[in-house]
Amino acid sequence: MRSEAQVARLLRLVPYLTAHQGVTVTETASVFGTTPRQILKDLEVLQFCGLPGGLYDDLFDVDIEGAREDGHIFFRNADVLARPLRLRPAEAAGLLAALRVVVEVAGESAAARSALDKLEAAVGREGDRLTVALAAGDAGHRAVLRAAVAAGTAVVLRYRTPGRPGVSEAVVEPARLHVVDGYTYLDAWSRVRGAWRSFRLDRVEAVEATTEPAGEHGDPPAGWFEDAPVHLTLLLDPSARWVSEYYPTTAVAERPEGLSVTFPVASTDWATSLLLRLGGRVRAVSDPAIEAAARSRAAAALAHYPEDLLG
Amino acid sequence: MSARKSERLLNLLIALLSTRRYLTKHELREMIEGYRGGTVASFERQFERDKEELRQLGVPIETGANTADTDEEYGYRINRADFELPPLAFSAEELAALGVAAQVWQDSVAATHTAQAIEALQAGGAAPDPALLPTVHPRIAVRDANFEAAYEAVTTRRELSFGYAGRPRRVQPWKLIQRRGQWYVFGLDPDRGEDRFFKLSRFTAAAEPTGRVGAVVVPDDADERAARLEPVVGVEAVVALRDGVPHSWPEAEPADWAGPLPAGFTAHRVRQGNEDLVIDEVAAAGADAILLAPEDLRRRLIARLRGMAG
To answer: What is the pTM of this model?
Structure first.
C-alpha cells in the first residue's frame, strides 16, 4: 500500500468515521473500496494522529481492540478533520461529466439537475474539463419511455433502421435507457421477437404510450453487446487494425494471414455497414449470411451511380 | 515504513490545518514526533518531500510570513476554507442521481477518479444510492489507449506530447471532449499558435503529459472556442442523403446541387479528416447515401462498391 493512497483515504476515513459512529469494519471497507484488513491498518495509523502536542487528549480516540473484536468502529476527538478534503480536479471532472450524462439521459429529472448544480457550485471550473456530447434523441420520446418504465407498461415504437427504407413499428416493453459510446439506447422486450432488444433513440421516430401491462422477463442483459446472439470474425489487412480498438471486440489475434478480430454483433445492419466501411481491407468473413447481406447492400448502393453501367 | 510515513504526513497536515499563524519548518519539527531525531539536513529534505506529497494530494499549503518583517523566516499553513469540501446536502432523489453517475464510467481512469469523488461525498455525509433510479442506465466505455494520459494532462493542466500522423506533436490541453463516441483533446497547439482538436484514436505514438503541473492556462471562453471549431477538418465532399434516415454526419449542411438526384434525397456538404474516411463513411451508409463530388472520390467509391458487390 503506497502511503499516498493511504493518506488520501485517511483524509476521508476520519470524517466518515466521525459521522458514522459504530459503523462496521466491513461496511467501511466496501464504501472505500478496500479490504477490512486495510481499514484496521488505517486505524492503527490514525491512533497516533491528532493535534500537535502528543498528549493523550490531543490524539484521535479510536478503540482498535473493540473494532477487532466486535467489528464496530467508534472514532472520536477528530473535530480538526470534520470535513473531507475538496474534490481534486481529476475527481471532480470524472464525477461531473458522469452526472451531466445522467442529467441528459434522465431528461427532466429535476433531482439530477439540482445535484449537478450543487456540485458545480462546490468545485467551480475545475470540474469542467471533461465533456461528453450525447446523441440522446428527442426529449419528449425519452419522457414517454421513462414513464412507461416506471409504470410497467408497453409502448408502440416507430423507428428507422439504417439501410432499410421506411419506418418499422413494434410493440415493446421498455426496461431502461442507457448510453454506449455517446448514443442513448432503449433496452426493451420486443414482443414480436420474444427477446431483449436495444433501440438507438436518435433513430426513433415516434413513441406512443399504451396501458397494456408489461410481462415478466427478468432483467435485461447487462451490456448492449453482451446479448448479441451473433459473433463475427473478420480477417483483416494490417491497415485496418484501428477497428479492433474502435469497436467492441471479444477476441483479437495476429495470424500469418492477417489480423483476426471477433466482434459481438448487435444487428446485421451494423455488421454489413462495417464490411462496407472496410471494403477490400477485409480478407475473410466468418459468417456467409452477413457477407451476402453486405454484397447485396453494395449492389443496392451501386444502383445510384449510372456511370457504373458503362464501366 | 509506509505506516509511519502516513502518520507523519497526516500529523503535518493537521498541524498546518489547526494553526492560524504560519508555522516555520523548525516549529513543525518540534511539534511533530515523526520529524524528531536525525539531522537538520535530513529533516529538511524529508519536510520538502512531505510538503510536495500533500500538495500532490490536492492539499492547499500556503507559504507566507506572520509579519511584514522581511528578515522573518517563511512559514506554512493550510487555510481551512480552501481545504474543506463545502457542506453539501442532497435529497434522496439527488443521491439517486449521484449513485447512477457513480456507475457511468467503465474501466477507465475516469472510473477510478469518479469512485474517489463518491468516497469524498460519502465522507461528507452523503450516501449515493443508484437503486432509487433504476430506469436510467448510462455507461461510457473508453477504448483509447491514450485516454489516461490525456485525462491526467487536462486535469493537472500539463502540456501533452504525442504522435499524430507519424509526427511528434504537443498541445496545451483545455478540455477532453467526447463527440459521437470519439474522444478529442482540445486546446492550444503551441507550435502553430492556434486552437485545435486532436482525435485520440488517431494518435500514432503514445501520449505523455510533459511540462509543469498547472502550467496550462485554460481560457474562460474555452467552451465557445471548442464550439466554433469543428473537430474534423480536412476533405469536403458533397453527399446526397436519404431524407429522414439518420446518418453519421451530424454537422452536414444542406448544399445546392444542380445535377439530378433520386426522389427522397437531399444534397449535403460534409467534412472528414481525409479522403479515405469519406469513402468509408459513404460506403457504410449503403443505399442511403450517394457521393456526388469530388469526382475522383466518387470513382473510388464506385470501385469499392463494385469490388464488394461481386
So the answer is: 0.67
